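Reminder to self: keep the SMILES exactly as supplied, no canonicalising. Ligand is manganese (II) ion.
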Amino acid sequence: MLSFTEENYLKAIYHLSAGGTKAVLTNEIAEAMETKPASVTDMVKRLASKNMITYERYYGVNVTKPGKSEALSIIRKHRLWETFLVEKLGFNWDEVHDVAEQLEHIQSPLLIQKLDEFLGFPSVDPHGDPIPDKHGKFHITRQIPIADSSGKKTVVSAVKDSSPAFLQYLNKIGVYIGVSIQVLEKIEFDRSVEIMIDGKRKLYISKEASENILVTE
Amino acid sequence: MLSFTEENYLKAIYHLSAGGTKAVLTNEIAEAMETKPASVTDMVKRLASKNMITYERYYGVNVTKPGKSEALSIIRKHRLWETFLVEKLGFNWDEVHDVAEQLEHIQSPLLIQKLDEFLGFPSVDPHGDPIPDKHGKFHITRQIPIADSSGKKTVVSAVKDSSPAFLQYLNKIGVYIGVSIQVLEKIEFDRSVEIMIDGKRKLYISKEASENILVTE
DNA sequence: ATAAAAGTTTAGATTAGTCTAAAAAATAGT
DNA sequence: ACTATTTTTTAGACTAATCTAAACTTTTAT
Ligand SMILES: [Mn+2]
Ligand SMILES: [Mn+2]
Ligand SMILES: [Mn+2]
Ligand SMILES: [Mn+2]
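Structure tokens returned for the bound complex:
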């Protein structure tokens, strides 16, 4: 049984490890968790003693198999709750993250099973992120930033940055999951991109914005 | 901002004070919270310093106006979540309490507003308990144990004990909120009661059981 | 009225999670 | 190869929430 705080650390570590594929450093964790490195050292020892990660002094941590499974369960809950908030309660996609950060810690397998069923076993959350199934499996669809797309008409399938600030900007310019989008021109000077949204609105977006709007290749 | 633990203490104190009407003793709180009296003394000092209760040494605590409002908000959340679990996710009424104990601590006024709306602004939870509105107001319908009812046909409107053990027994004998019920005879020997359920099933229930099945007078 | 019992509080310790400051190890630069 | 910088760890302290054991009030019973 992990505590609330341990769950948050483990999830952050899992994300930083790119799905458990690489070692994660103390300072990275401290930055992600907005705590001090000294606190991280304490916590990684605790998580290591619970076999969620392996820890080697001065080197970093790796997520173990049980750690991955635990992290995926938390991510599953987070994304199911986000889906519930948008699909059933009528939240906007920029309002759900903080509430889901709380809801993801509720302990009840029955609740998650019933919620999943109630939502019709969704495979992606409101930001286009995949929802792991109860065994931690999910489809990794190749998603690329629009700037790297071919220039043909495609469809927005996810956003990389889910911060309210970015999502609210997307609301303003009419970009959402499922909208048609086409890259008309890439400006060499500042790497900004001219796009056509929904086949009718033309506008320029910054390099940063373009890197956070993803389409399926 | 109260912590998770402070919220639980405050709610217990509010319930023990019968809605904020009487003083509550240290040992009562310790028993309700399954902690030791020494821990309660510490906690009531904290809650008093946050103006949720007033505390007088060796005498007990009283819930303040802001304390009542806070407690009612937690109770509102608890009962809305229980209603959600039963009405929308298909939980049985004996499965919801422990999950609601967790969900009641989620902090998001928007969430509760939207949940209330999604549920159609319910006024009672799955156990017949009233749900306070956003201002903490609720209807106190006079509910009495069936044994004290007139002997005419009435309708079960609430249960006093919401423990899984009791609710599962009620499931077994076919008693639920809204079922028709009639007291046929009160046995003098052990105060057990013969009842007619749904106009067709006759059976005996114990004094204890009869005291926990409530009808509207 | 005094002693015994019951109830409550204080004192001191423990654990989780955090911090600052200092020490130690790893890395980079000359 | 040696020094300087960066990164990480340790040591020691703090708060919230808990406990046990001892001390103190209040209540009850003779
Ligand atoms: Mn999120
Ligand atoms: Mn998301
Ligand atoms: Mn309940
Ligand atoms: Mn209830």
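Points to follow up:
The helical segments of chain A are 4-16, 26-33, 37-49, 65-87, 97-103, 109-118, 164-173, 207-211.
Residues 3, 5-6, 35-36, 38-39, 42-43, 46, 57-59 of chain A lie near DNA strand C (CB under 10 Å from a C1').
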